[in-house]
Write a structure and sequence with these properties.
The chain is α/β, with parallel strands linked by helices and 375 residues long. It is 39% helix and 15% strand. It folds into 2 domains: 116 residues, Aspartate Aminotransferase, domain 1 (Alpha-Beta Complex), CATH 3.90.1150.10; 222 residues, 3-Layer(aba) Sandwich (Aspartate Aminotransferase, domain 2). Keywords: Aminotransferase, Pyridoxal phosphate, Transferase.
Length: 375
């Protein structure tokens, strides 16, 4: 008997596998294809010959935990205690999974805002809890009236993703005011804030849950070095939470992975002394702008992208196919892989929208755009 009977192979896996089979340009899965910063690779090359190959403490490599505390302080002016409020995780997804397993019980309800990352729902189901999927507005802003109606005495968590994957939307000050009102009405609700693209925003800087006093005692923040430093294969992330919640999260973490890759932790702890995370937004904004310029003569309609390294596009002027079918044909007939947005909705809402990843080198973007402009 399956515990996840409705869960199938991830759409990201499906599209990447098809891209490989048809030798298509892969703009589907969210991983960069350009070189990692040589300063980081030099650090890890040197560390590989040092004594950093055994278990680190369960919660994380102490120098890295101190660096995370410094990063949060410099980025958001929030003081956190490394020993009690930080956990280094095997990627942000493990942080999300571990948090939900630790804090959600049988019969609880968790509000998930659609379109949503596919790793939110499964851990809720594995807790014998109920995911309550609430759609964002068509412009991807939250409908707080609808969200409030979805909450009840059984609601124990709401998951927010800011900046938002797949849409590239960022939450506003008004959104946080509405969230504060919601939490005042439901004092038992925790917030899981997925902020893995926190440093990848453009015209407007993203507003972190770290900066909101009303959230600090009931919010778990999830971040990703893999996303920030384009080292997704390292699978290194971290969570920040108040001590009373972190105690519970650590209980699950110690039996799930115990401790995270030691050499990666040591390397990132050194790298944080030389890298400027504030330059990431400018770097990816140039990528976004270049990709948009390359597609300006295509028949795709590009939607606003405020953050992340994803561009949502409408193909309504090109085809009446549903978005999954269109993406498969995009691979087989045109040699470019993308992700259908309907797969991020519980009801598979199809608005003729697809997602491209522009975290690619210029040659890849140019080659893909050439094919896309010929459709």
């Amino acid at each position: 008997m399956s515990k996840l009977p409705n869960v199938t192979t991830s759409i990201f896996t499906v599209m990447s596998k098809m891209a490989a089979e048809y030798n298509a340009i892969n703009l589907s899965q969210g991983f960069p294809n350009f070189p990692v910063d040589e300063r980081l690779t030099d650090i890890i090359a040197r560390l590989s010959k040092e004594n950093v190959h055994q278990y680190t403490p369960m919660a994380g490599f102490p120098p890295l935990m101190n660096q995370i505390a410094k990063l949060v302080q410099s980025s958001y002016n929030r003081t956190i205690v490394p020993e009690t409020e930080i956990l280094v995780t095997a990627g942000a997804t493990q942080g999300i999974f571990t948090t939900i397993l630790a804090l959600i019980k049988t019969g609880d309800e968790v509000v998930i805002l659609d379109p949503s990352y596919d790793s939110y729902e499964s851990p809720v189901l594995l807790c014998n809890a109920k995911p309550v999927r609430v759609a964002l507005n068509d412009d991807y802003t939250p409908n707080w009236e609808t969200i409030e109606k979805a909450c009840s005495s059984k609601t124990k968590m709401i998951i927010i993703n800011n900046p938002h994957n797949p849409t590239g939307k960022i939450l506003t000050e008004a959104d946080f005011l509405q969230l504060e009102k919601l939490l005042s009405k439901f004092p038992d609700i925790l917030v899981l804030s997925d902020e893995v693209y926190e440093y990848i925003t453009f015209e407007e800087k993203h507003i972190s849950a770290h900066t909101k006093d009303f959230l600090l005692n009931r919010c778990i923040m999830v971040s990703s070095f893999g996303k920030s430093f384009h080292i997704t294969g390292w699978k290194i992330g971290y969570t920040v939470a108040p001590e009373y919640l972190m105690k519970e999260i650590k209980k699950v973490h110690q039996f799930l992975v115990f401790s995270v890759n030691s050499i990666s932790q040591a390397a990132i702890s050194e790298y944080l002394d030389v890298v400027d995370v504030n330059l990431l937004g400018k770097f990816y904004q140039e990528k976004r702008d270049y990709f948009q310029k390359l597609l300006q003569n295509s028949r795709f309609e590009l939607k606003p992208c405020e953050g992340t390294y994803f561009q949502v596009a409408s193909y309504a002027n090109i085809s009446n196919d549903d978005d999954v079918t269109f993406c498969k044909k995009l691979i087989t007939d045109h040699g470019v892989a993308a992700i259908p947005i309907s797969t991020f909705y519980s009801d598979h809402k199809d608005q003729k929208l697809i997602r491209f990843c522009f975290a690619k080198d210029d040659f890849t973007l140019e080659s893909a755009a050439k094919k896309l402009c010929n459709i």
